[in-house]
Write a structure and sequence with these properties.
N-(1-d-carboxylethyl)-l-norvaline Dehydrogenase, domain 2; binds nicotinamide-adenine-dinucleotide; 21 strands; 3 domains; alpha/beta; 2-enoyl-CoA Hydratase, Chain A, domain 1; Rossmann fold
Amino acid sequence: MTEFHYDKGADGVAVITWDVPGKSMNVMSLEGFKELDAHIDTALADDSVKGIVITSGKKDFAGGMDLNVLAKMKAEAGDEPARGLFDGVMMMHGVLRKIERAGMDPKTLKGAKPIAAALPGTAVGIGLELPLSTHRIFAADNPKAKIGLPEIMVGIFPGAGGTTRLVRKLGAMGAAPFLLEGKLSEPKKAKSAGIIDEVVADPVAAAKEWVLNAKDADCVKPWDQKGYKMPGGTPYNPQGFMTFVGAAAMVHGKTQGVYPAAKALLSAVYEGAMVPFDTALKIEARWFTHVMMNPSSSAMIRSLFLNKEALEKGAVRPKDVPDQQVAKVGILGAGMMGAGIAYVSARAGIEVVLIDAKQEAADKGKAYSEGLMDKAISRGRSTAEKKAELLDKITPTTDYAALKGCDLIVEAVFEDPGVKAEVTAQAQAVVGADCIFATNTSTLPITELAKAAQDAQGFIGIHFFSPVDKMALVEIIKGKQTGDRAVAKALDYARQIRKTPIVVNDARFFYANRCIIPYINEGVRMVAEGIEPALIENAAKLVGMPLGPLQLVDETSIDLGVKIAKATKAAMGDAYPDDAVDAVLFWMYDQGRLGRKSASGFYAYDEKGKRTGLWDGLAAQYPVAENQPDVTEVQHRLLFAQVLEAVRALEDGVLMDIREGDVGAILGWGFAPWSGGPLSWLDMLGAPRAVELCDALTERYGKRFATPKLLREMAEKGDSFYTRFAPAAKAA
Ligand code: NAD
């Protein structure tokens, strides 16, 4: 398979075109690297070649590295996986360094063949690391293109020289947002940040012209010149010292020390800044290997890259149902959720009818989109035309007749089965049974709600998370009778509005809420036990949860917690296990402390609604005990409360695919992303250790921690979730 093509023109410019067959986007493979290396050798050895341009045969330059390559390097090295990785990475450094030096005389720094990169569009990951090794980068003036190094987002960091080169180019401070946050920029912004050199209409033509006119000095990187000084200073220079001390504190503050990649990146930058360039590359390769050997990185790559993408591409979509893309959606209820769903649908180009009981409420729902677009415009992220176009798609009304022609209805009225049944009947009287009907309920059984529909096969749950425009996950819930066409419709819609979907079966609280409620409850229960609230909150954050359980209940509101508790107790009767939790929640509710919305909850808030710290009045009712548990004990309680529910959801058949369990947990409620998700975390612990911990927790705290049968059986058989349940999921 030829991935790179070589073409020497009459003008003496060798053009190397990256064009991986059968793919819409170039991704780097080991074979590709070898081909590129061979073409560079050919060009450098050919005296008639005056310069080299590296470009792409596709509309974009490249989407990055095929992450399975790294897995392969590890696997092929047998019992020395770290060596396999390190050698593989050093091979890449060798090729890119050859491009950078381009045959120059190391003493005189003369005689290099000019090499330029011409990027027609997006260039990320290795797709930018390769251009960074050339002498000049030309990008097309394409505002849709994204340029950057997003590796940190999947738990690794740029390990093909991107870290070392960008820091030497921009300084540690300048490179920080691109390396530590994985920030992507459109070409003009990438140019003003100093990442690329030129934005032009025709990058190949401009690059050719440049290589034909480049002088020796143009082909020597600053770091290959004598007396090079890193912008912003190295760690032992007074200015650089400030940067590095600040950066270490900032990274630790943001990551709580649980992300190995952020720490390793910082070490690679710090240590690399103090040594010559080639040694810095070696240091980068060592830290990269270190990160790749950490199970957290493999788990993050698996969940946040490979499996997330697989779900987005329809891994669980019923295969035989033809395309079900939505042209016109009717949204019932223009409240907080309905308004958000209208916005994301209109943004995807779908025509929206937004219905509420009163015209003012429907208009207010549409105004939400207007507000979001105004904000985007003020931040330079959108335009007045785009706003007008989007708003044009939304028709706010009270008239159900406007639903005519809709091929999907999403219901988001009050959480009341009676109201939901009424609007279901009203809408179906207009659209008929053929139109798929979805409910956004967060607590009511889909199978029950489907009874109000003309055809239960066409009835489904599409559970959005709040705020709809920001949250990446939608949970699609199959009622007992839901048919394949409804599932396909929900999945095709999720794809249109660019959300990551998971498909689960109908059971109390579906999947995400089923796992998150026990997390909140465990935190509240600890308050009742006299555990210091700051210990509860910090223990959660130190293990990578974005919000402590008490902050989370403040955000979602204490009255909602009370409402859910009452409904659950009514449904479960004597089996209800959470009276201890309710004592605290109901007391808070009686005090009028409803959380953020009343600017008072487990936290105190100032007059602007900003959290000022944990509420000091709590101790009067729930005194802090003299003996406090170890932080790890608190963390185990908080994590097991969630992951055991995930295992039970799998046992009960609510979860049908473990990939969905892990991806859904991270995207839905921010479950410690470093772990790759609850099931990945259990695999990391190993089933025997997980069972041991569960048994100990059960003995101390009761049967809510009882070891699920499945986990015990896995411990006995030496199984892991990803060996036993993941047919198509691949580990990186
Ligand atoms: P909301 O109270 O903000 O909005 C409900 C809207 O429905 C109101 O505008 C109301 O006027 C309208 N409505 C009520 N009866 C109606 C009728 N007969 N005809 C037309 N419109 C009617 O509530 P919300 O937070 O947007 O929640 C809506 C649904 O989404 C609920 O089922 C809820 O469980 C679910 N949900 C909420 C969240 C969340 O975080 N708020 C998350 C996921 C799902």
